[in-house]
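Box S2. Input/output pair 1.
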Amino acid sequence: MLRPFLSVSLLLVASVFAGEMPFPQPEKGAVRLLSKHSPYILEQGVVFSSTDTLLVEPGVTVLMGEYAKIMLRGPVRIQGTPEKPITFRSADSSESWNGIHFVSSSKPFEVRNLVIDVSNNLGGSADIVIAMAGVILGDEGSDITFESVFTGQKCRESFTVDRNFDGKFDEKDKEVDYGLRYGILISRDSFSGGNLLPFIMKDNGVLVMGEKSRGGSCAVQRMVTADGYMCWISSARFRMTDKAGNNIDGGIEPDVDLLEKNEDGSCKTVNVEIESIGILGAGPETETTTIEINDYSEFYNIDRLSEEMNSFYGK
């Protein structure tokens, strides 16, 4: 029996490729992803039984379609290297995918560095943030704190998370240990839920890298209409705080600033071209504009990220 093993780095990011190889289904108890056939595309989802083995060579990229997911119940060998990392990406930067689920009663894999990229995350479901934090951190990540803007009253909400994905909320969830070392990538485009997740991570000792997030993690207010309809809206009455009671709406400072600097301390920039679609009858159908933005190349420098994580956590 092949021992489940996951080595070096997985980077969850977004990109688009052409000429993809369809993701194979389990055959004779195994799926082998070869670098010479990379990138692979998974349009929907695949489930590996307890007798199926997933083997991935260094340098393989897997592109995930909208809502696609991989569920692994059996042995895993994902052997990335600093020179040839294994990457799971969204096939379309405008769409989301449902992740990789390791389902096992024992420690399913070993990993050195797992990077979660929310540098282009403008927000979403607070429930998803809490679920992710709970899976990563356990009980420490299942609490959120906030305060009343009017009275300064401090509040805390606690959540129970099914950390082993067995559909039950019980003591077995506390026994789960995924053995991961996490890094979180943030930028000025990390807003609302994209600000809340790195805040919870940093407040619990997880490395946060990138540039200062946009902020905006106001609490969600529950409201009921006259006819009994319940809804949730962003509220200015409450705002999120860290464990010490400090307001986080202004954004999160990273532990490691990844933006390259000029001698005068300003950020290095690059020029990029963007294509806009004109309004019908009001100009050309498309128009190309050149804009100057910060240089984010270090955000996806695998060697740099590995060095920072090894320095933060120790080799």
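Box S3. Input/output pair 2.
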Amino acid sequence: MYQQHTKRRIMYLAPLNYDRYFKKVFSDLTIAKRFIEDFLDVEIEQIENLNTDHLLTNNATELKFDFRCRIDKHDIIIEMQQWFKPDIIHRFYLYHAMNTALQLEGLTDKVMYAGDPKKIKIQDYRQLKPVITIVWMVTDTLSFSSNIQSFALFPENLKQFVSDETLWESKDAEKIIDARNEVLTILQNNSKNIHWMSTNRLIYAFQPNIVANPKFTKYKAWFELAQKTLSRIQDKFAYAEFEKDEVLREVVRRLCVEPTDQKEWEYIQNEEELYEKAKRYDEGIRAEGKAEGLAEGKAEGLVEGKAEGLVEGKAEGKAEAESKLIPIIEAERLAKIEAQEQAQLALEKAQLATVEAQETAKIAAQKMHKLIKRLIGMGGTPYEIAEELGISLEEVKAIADLPTEV
């Protein structure tokens, strides 16, 4: 199905967990289908892509899903949670619930007759498909030690039965069996398809636990691949095990980033900076942000105060000028001063433009230096790098501080 891509001597895989690359990978329905099959241990006959961006109400902000599809009997959401957010439980419950509500767009009307020839059209909500939401937790485990934790809607009697310490501490086996039978009777009641509620599932998948668990699961390879890309493993042989599988090989291909693609590297760098900020926040380093906020507020206050003072001063000067005749000689003096100020401003702008041009050239040289260092770190030779970047071998050696005999 997929063409085998040419092997690269210099190879870097972007982190699968980053939003852009996750969507790039899962936009391929063959890849998405295989992941869902591996994760849920099911076989899917049909899969259909669903819209991911929605405005829920006139005043609500846009809700964006990472990935949303429809398979044989369910609607599926896959959400990648990589940054620290304190609201993830509420956030993903909302996503989970809204994926049911969004099905209203496709419900067909049911015609009911209320006496000939009068007809009434109503919506038949039995058409609603159960929703399965998979939350891919990149670093957080929510304090669980299991690979996954699934939540579904069940009668409260079940929780009460399991949590009844008095019942379990008693040695009355008959009483325990009676209580269990009572719960089973409730669970077995499927009046008006009440079991439909428990087929809706909100599943948290914990990448750290899955990778660390030595037990084999069909979905483990997906999380191992994601972890390797997140860990910045750049060895071209590190992904050989995934190359053996046709679908995972395509995932690797889609994650490949060209060493010279500056836009992709800037995106990755921005994501890394966001990750570090989120990590610091997660670790409780909030005093720094508070201090920065105070400092910025102080600075803004000074600037605003100065600006207000200038505006007020100008207003007062204008009022005074209007109330008194300014001598012609004073007007000429002011005009001369203004001309001198304009000339000085033009000079300063020219000097600033020169400095900015020098800084731009300096930044470009630094980026080229970093790129060459990165390529060497990935195993590229000076000859390969020079050819790929279109510069001379001597430039590569000079920038990389390599001896001339290399």
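Caption for Box S3: The longest strand covers residues 75-81. The chain has a mean pLDDT of 81.
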